[in-house]
Write the structure tokens for this entry.
Amino acid sequence: MTRSQRVASTHFNKEFRESLSLWQEEVVQLGLVDPVTTEVVRLRCADHHDCYT
Amino acid sequence: MESSTDAFFREVLAGRTPVADQLEKIHGLAWEVADPVLLDICRLRIAMLLGCHSELEVLNSDLDSDKIASLSQWAASGLFSEREKSCLRFTEEFIVDVSQIPDSSAFAVRDHLGEEGFVNFVNALLVIEQRIRLQLVWRKIRNEVSV
């Protein structure tokens, strides 16, 4: 399936965007899962969500 | 006022305050940046599709009870506007496979909400979906552990 670019920018609500980033940072810093597994999952999720940030 | 779901997350994340605080913050912001009635319709549809009964018992807006009763047949129902239908279609595709949402579904939502509204809606949907999936997993784990 081809996907076009859907929006010119995702930089709209700064507070929401920054809060989402902080939430993700807090989650990956949890020590319950080893760092390599955490990173593999994080990269897989980023790829699946088309997230290049 | 704190809901039972908020209390559940606080309890599960006790001792992990930064994570709990951030989760609470993004959840609050999700309801601020998106139309709460529209988001509530989509939240209930996610809960239906994922089988999250605890979330179905919650109502976060003044959503019409007839609409709630017709939500599983939204596509054929005359109770839902084209704007709501476009968001429900996007929501269902988002839940099934976020990487395979067709352009037509995304552009329909964007056309109804505008670019900023579309981005905010998708981010809000992400928060709602994560919260429901976390609830499902954590409630199951807690039930199994307590048996």
In short: Chain A is about 55% helix and 0% strand. Chain A touches chain B through 24 residues (CB under 8 Å). Residues 28 and 38 of chain A are 7 Å apart (CA to CA).
